[in-house]
Amino acid sequence: MMCAASLASAETVWLSSLDLKRMTSGWSVPKVDLGVAGKPLSIGGKQFARGVGTHATSKLRVDLGRKANRFFAQVGVDDSAGGQGSVEFIVAGDGKILWQSGLVTGGKPAVPVDVNVAGVGVLDLRVTDGGDGSGSEHADWAEAGIEMQAGAQAPTALLPFETFSLRTKSFALEFRVGDDGRLYQNVLGAPDVNEPPQRLDEAYPQWGDGYIWEPALQVSHADGNTSTALLYDGATRTNEAPDRELLRIKLRDSAYPFEVTLCLRAHRGRDLLEQWIEIRHHESGAVKLEHMASSALLLSPTNLHLAHFFGDWAKEMQPTTELLTPGTKVLDSKIGVRAHQFRNPSFILSLDGTPSETSGRVLAGSLAWSGSFQCAFDHNGRGVRALCGVNPFASGYTLAAGETFTTPTMIWVWSDQGLGDMSRKFHAWARDFGLRDGHVPRAVLLNNWYATGFDFDFNRIVGLFDPAKEIGTELVLLDDGWFGNKYPRVNDRAGLGDWQPNRRRLPDGLAPLAAEAVKRSLRFGIWIEPEMANPKSELFEQHPDWVIAQAKRELELQRNQLVLDLTRPEVQQFEWHIIRDILSVTGISYAKWDCNRYLTQPGSSWLGPHRQSHLWIDYVHALYGLMDKATKTFPKTELMLCAGGGGRVDYGALRYFHEFWPSDNTDPLVRVPMQWDYSYFFPLMSIVSHATHSDNRPMHFGCSVAMSANFGMDLDLVKLPPEDKAICAGAISAYKRIRDVTQLGDLYRLERPHAATRGALNFVSSDRARAVVFVFQLKDGPVLPVRPQGLDASRRYVVRELNPELGRPGLATEGKSIAGEDLMRDGIVPSCSKALEACVIELAP
Ligand code: GLA
C-alpha cells in the first residue's frame, strides 16, 4: 500500500505522481510524463511536460477519500500513433460516469476536461478503444491533476479490483479480480471465504506464467513465447430475454495483443449455464492454441462424486459413479467424427456424495461437440477443476491475427434437489433450445432395417406400407441398401458414396416409393450416410484422395468403409449435393443421418503438412456447416441422428436434429437402463426406441419399453403373427393418447432398474392434470406398489391401465378416481410381477 500523506493546503496532486503500476494499459505500461511509446507527451502537435501516457483499453482507480474538488486534464491521442487511433476517455465517480470525451481520434488537438469530483470516493479514469478494436490507441492524460481539499489525505491509486457474479434461481457463479489483475472464481460448494484468492482459484487458468496445474489455455505466441498472462479487462451484461442473460468477461494478456472472452449465458429459471470462450489476437504472426477449454469451473473437493457413462457399440451409456480423489481423472475421445463411441461427453458432479434422484446438490455437464473431446477433473487438494472442451491431444490450432476461435459450448445444469430436478431443467431447455421442434410430439415410425436388412426391392418395401397403416404407424423409413449400381449396396462391403438409387431394386428411383407411402397418408423417410465411402465404390475409384488416410500407410477399414475428408471444399460440395438431391425428392419428409466409423488414421491430403492437427476441429465445423444448411434448406424435414447407434449423441449435433438413435441394441431389457441413463441429459422425446424381434422378448414388453420414449418399430409386419400385430396396434393407439404427456411433460425417475427386479418412471403434464406411469419387470419380483411423483396432491386422477396384456389380471384400482396425495403416498399396485412383463398406467381426470 502507498503511504498516505496529509496535504497542508488545497493543492493539486498530479496524476503522474500516483503509483501507475496499478493502472492497466492495453499495450506496454503507462508512462510518467511521457507518451506510452516513451516519447514526450504530444497531442495534435502540442507538447505537454506533465501527464500520463497509456494505451487503450486502460483503467486507473483512485481513492479520493471524498476529499477532492476537481479533476482536470487535457486528453487526446498521442502523436506517436502517427495520426492513427481512436479512443474514448471516461471519468467516472463511484461507478457513475461524470464525463466522457466521445470519440477522440489521432492528430486532433487535446480536449480539455474539468470535472467537479466533490464527494466522490473512488475516481475511475478509463480509456476505451472507441468500439473499433485497439491498434495505435496511444492515449494521453496530459496535465492531469486532482485538486484536493486542505488537510485531505493524498489520493492513492487503487488496484483494479472488482467482484461480480452470475446468478440463476438457485445457483451462483462468483468471480473476483485479484490484486494482480487476474480473474478468480470463488470455489463452488465451498463456504464463503474472505481470504485473498490463490493462483489455484483462477477462473480460466493459463499456462506458462506461474500456474502449474492442468491449464484451460496454453498458447504459443507469434514470437514463440509459451506463456500467457490474462488480466481482467471488463465485463458486459446483456439481457437477451426476461429469463436469459449473457455475461461476457474480457481478459487481456498483459504483454501481447491477445484477448480471451469468457461467455456465460444464464437461463435463470432453469439453473442452466451455457459457457464458451472466444480467443482473438493481433500479434505479428499466427499463434498456436494448444489447450483451449470451453469451461474450467472450480468445485470444492469435499465428497465430490463423478458419474460418467462409458460404452461401446450396442453397449452405449453404461454408468459408473466414483469419488474424485487427488490426481487428474480424464474422460476423453481421440477418434473424431463419431467421437462418443466409447463415452458420452456428459457427466454429473455430485457435491453431497453419491447422487440421489430427489436430494443433494448436483451439477450436470454436457459438451456440445461431436468431435474428440476432453473432460479432465483435476483434483489438487484445494479444489477440483472441471476442464471441458475439444481434446487438446494432437489438436494444436493455428490462429491468424484478427481471426476468432470460438470453443464449443459447455452446458451446465445445477440442482440442489437431486438428479430428477436436474434432468427436468435440462429437458425443458432442450425442448426450447437443444433440439429442433422440441414442442412437437414425435410420429410413430416403422423402419425396415431389422425386418429386411439389405434384402429388399420396391415391392417388398411397399408391402410393408398397408400393414403399417393398419396398425397406426405414421411414418415409414427406408434404411440402408437402396443405392449403388456399379457396386450395388447389397451388403456393407460396397456402394457407399454412390448415392444413385439401385436400378434393379428401385427402377424408378425413390419418388415412386415415397408416393406409395404418401398415398396411404404415411410420411416417408430415407437413410443416408453422406460422410463415408466404401473403397468398392465409383466415388473412391474417381477420388481416392478424398478420404481421410495416412500417406504411406495401408488403409484401415471399419465396417469396410472410409471417412471422406470434409475439410476439403470439393467434399463439402459433394456431400451437400447428396443431401440436397435426396431430401429434395418429392414425398421425403424424414431422414436418418448415419455415421458408421470413426477416425483411426487422421491424415488429410487437403490440410497440408502444417495443419494436420486442424483435422479434428475443422471436420466438425464443416459437418455442422452441412447440417445447418440441411436444416435451413429443408426446415420441415425431420432428422434422426445416428452413428452406428449412439456414437454421436451430443448437443452440438442435436440442435440440427429432432431425435437420435441411441443404440443398435434394441433388446428392451438393455434399453430400460440405457434409456434411463440417457434421460439424465436428453429428453425421452429425443431418444428413439423401436420394438424389434431382436432377442425375442415378448412383444408387449418391447412395445411398452419403446413407447416410454420416441416410439417406433422395426418389424416385418407382413410376417407378424396377428396377436403381436394387435399388441403393436394397441401400443400405438395408447402412445398417441399419451405422447403429449411423455414427450412434453416432466419426467420422474422412480425406481432405478440397474441390477434390480424392475424399473419405473412417470411423466406429468405441465398442468399436472395428467400423468403416465411405466413399470418394467426385468426379473420375477414381489408385487409392490409403485409411487408416482410430481402429481397435484389435491387433484383426483382416474387410474387406467393402457394396452393391458391379454391373459393377465388387470389393476385392482382400474377405473378408480384417487387423490394425487394418496397416489403419491400409497402408490398403485401394477399388473406386472413376472420377468418381461410391463404395465403402463394412465392417470387422468
Ligand atoms: C447403423 C445403424 C443401424 C442401421 C445400419 C445400416 O448400424 O445404427 O440402425 O441403419 O447402420 O447399415
Describe it.
There is one protein chain. This protein is α+β, with helices and mostly antiparallel strands. The chain is built from twelve helices and 49 strands. Strands 19, 20, 21, 22, 24, 25, 27, 28, 32 and 33 form a ten-stranded antiparallel β-sheet that branches. An eight-stranded parallel β-sheet has the order 41-40-39-36-35-34-43-42. It is globular, with a radius of gyration of 32 Å. Residues 449, 479-480, 527, 594, 596, 642, 644-645, 661, 664 line the site of alpha-D-galactopyranose (GLA).
Strand content: 25-35%
Unreliable stretches, pLDDT < 50, 5 or more residues? none
**Number of distinct beta strands:** 49
Structural class: alpha+beta
The portion of residues assigned to helices is: 10-25%
- Rg from alpha-carbon coordinates: 32 Å
**Continuous helix count:** 12
Q: CA-to-CA gap between the ends? A: 71 Å
Question: Shape from CA axes?
Answer: globular
Ligands, ions, cofactors? alpha-D-galactopyranose
The major beta sheet can be summarized as:
10 strands, antiparallel
Summarize the model shown.
The protein is 16% helix and 34% strand. The protein contains twelve helices and 49 strands. The chain is globular, with a radius of gyration of 32 Å.
